[in-house]
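Quick check before the chapter quiz. The format below is the same one you will see on the exam, so make sure you can read both the input and the output lines.
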Amino acid sequence: MSNLLDLILFGIFVAAVIAVRLARTERARRYAVNALFLYVLAVHAVLAAARRDAWPFATHGVFLEKADEQRPLSNVRFVGVDNSGREHPLDPDSWSPISVRTLEVWWLVDFPRLSPHEQKSVMAFLLEKAQAARVARPSVLRLLAAPPWYSTEPAEAASTLPYAGFRAYLVTRIPAQKLATRAESSRLLAQFP
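Here is the expected output.
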């Protein structure tokens, strides 16, 4: 049913674009453009509220293959470490103006290419950004802003303890198992200091 709904939304979008192209008068074209604009805004608003995507109404790159609930998925998880060694999840908005997804891709592709000194500098910078985000007051704009993509997990409450360290893990999960048992594996990629 979801694919059928996506197809219907896309069909309406294509029809609206064709209507703009075929409009014969300036007034008709302006009306068609306004209708297309309002349609796109309305669909984005509904999908953002529902926290789902319906291509082409997405804010992230389209996946190139169909999802498989048995196929392992991996991502980078960044955590702050307090003086007692306890790990705390970091606010995904700590890395603003880039999204956590962008940082994850950069980390996997470019971080390993850096020298050890450059890697330490990067982790010190990220620790500083995470610490600044931990003590920052939440902005009203943050509540109004759309997430970098609609399936971002909500941020957990910030730690009350200052971060003394930073760790990055490669977390791998199989969606069917994660849903059933919350099972996932993690491997430490880097830590600072």
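If your answer matched, good. The helical segments are 2-22, 26-50, 100-109, 116-135, 140-144, 175-181.
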